[in-house]
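Morning run. Coffee first, then this:
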Amino acid sequence: MDTLLTSTPRLIVNHESWKNSWKRTKIETLALLLRGALEAEAKVGLKMNIEKKRLANLLKTLPALRNPTIAQLSLAGWVAVETIIDEHIVREIIPQLKAAGAEGIIEYPLNKVVY
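And here it is:
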């Protein structure tokens, strides 16, 4: 097998449409959503719970799009951690997260990632 053709998505806009502010706003919104969908293709979300005293160690191992979201759980001394990471590293990082004390690890697909 061999690659015969490679393509990339392009958004082409009529010059007159681009001058119309209402149409321009709609086009920019569409472009934002398309970029978000393309960005999400290679990323996944991860959620997990961990004891608060083990959180610092977990954060050393956990990559994130920016910074992970950390929320207090109803059980005292525990937090929920949520992050977005590249899909290709999930297989490697889940065992490391488990070893760091994470429990209830959930991986989920993303529809859009908008920066």
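The first strand starts at residue 43 and ends at 51. Good start to the day.
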